[in-house]
Structure formats: C-alpha cells, structure tokens
Design goal:
The chain has 184 residues and is an alpha/beta fold. 45% of the residues lie in helices and 16% in strands. The chain has one domain: Rossmann fold, CATH 3.40.50.1980. Strands 1, 2, 3, 4, 5 and 6 form a 6-stranded mixed β-sheet that branches. The radius of gyration is 19 Å and the shape is globular.
Length: 184
C-alpha cells in the first residue's frame, strides 16, 4: 500500500472485518462513504435474515457432525486443513458442525491424523478438489481419507474456498449451504 501511495495513487485502508459485527461495521462505513446508507442497511438486513434462516434450519438437526475442511488436498502426504480459529470454523459452528482438525489454524496434517480424527463429513475446497479432477472416487481413495466415515458414507463435498475465509454479505447463504451439506 505504501508503494501505491508513493506513486500518487490515492489509497484508503478500511478496517479488517474478522467477525460478523466488524463486517456489518465495514458495510456501514462503505455505505456512508459512497452515500449508499440505504443499500448498506438493506445488505445488513439481508445478511441477518439469511443467518436467522440458517439458524432455524440448523436447530432441526439433533447432531453435530465432525467436519474436516481440507483447503489444499494432499501434498507431500500432508493435507492443508482449516483449523479451529478463523472464519471457516466460525461458519462451521453456525452451520451446526464441529471442526475435526486438531489444530487451531491452517496447518498440514498427516494422513494418519486425518484417519484418527474420523470426520463424518469432509469439505474440500475447490482448489484441492479441482486438482484431483473433481472425482470423488479419487478423493475417497487418498491416504487417510479412505479410512474416514466421510469417505465410507460418501459425505465429501466440494466448496468454494473464498466462501469460507471471510465474512461478507453472503455469509448467511454460505452458512446455510454448509449446514445443508454437513447434515445431508
């Protein structure tokens, strides 16, 4: 950002939005800055409505499945997973799931750890899923994955990575989609 400013391009840095509340604050700031306060209010109202709808759907499910979110698929016999800190985990909790990763942040986990954790559901982000050609059978055969209830029960789903790494206007929709996938 300083380099861009040095060449004379105006730069405006906005506060980061790492929670739902800070996301709503950022939406309001942007609405005010662009003189679109009513649009910001509408976006926040839609977000709250979607989150309430997702919450009512989640309450219908009596169990909380163990879910593993694999971001990068497999490399060097390791899986890059999203742990228990951050947006993906917060959304997973709102969707009625429990994070199966035994780590607090993004981290490589071995096939043995994946098998030990026994996730009921695996959400594979588009990048790792697409690297395997989008073939669920190939994915289910990966070391460690094949030994999980998720693989045995065909509960491995492709998700868009960008829908899990930040809060925004579509968070409610994303939580609802995640709830539907993990509770299928």
């Amino acid at each position: 950002m300083p380099q861009v400013a040095k060449v004379g391009i105006p730069v405006k840095v906005y506060p980061s939005a790492v929670t739902l509340d800070s996301t709503k604050i950022l939406i309001r700031i942007l609405g005010k800055e662009y003189r679109e306060d009513s649009a910001a209010d509408r976006i926040i109202k839609d977000l709250d409505t979607d989150l309430a709808r997702a919450d009512s759907v989640v309450k219908k499910y009596p169990t909380k499945p163990k879910v593993l979110i694999i971001h990068f698929g497999q490399q060097r016999n390791q899986y890059f997973v999203m742990g228990t800190k951050g947006t993906a985990d917060a959304m997973l909790k709102m969707a009625g799931g429990i994070n199966a990763a035994d780590t607090s942040s993004f981290r490589d986990l071995s096939a043995e750890v994946i098998a030990r954790e026994q996730p009921d559901v695996i959400l594979a982000t588009d990048f790792g899923w697409d690297r395997l050609g989008g073939d669920i059978e190939k994915f289910k055969e990966l070391p460690g994955i094949a030994l999980t209830p998720a693989a045995k029960n065909g509960k491995i789903f492709r998700v868009e990575e960008h829908d899990l790494v930040y809060f925004g206007p579509r968070t409610g929709e994303n939580v609802l989609l995640m709830a539907e996938l993990i509770h299928k």
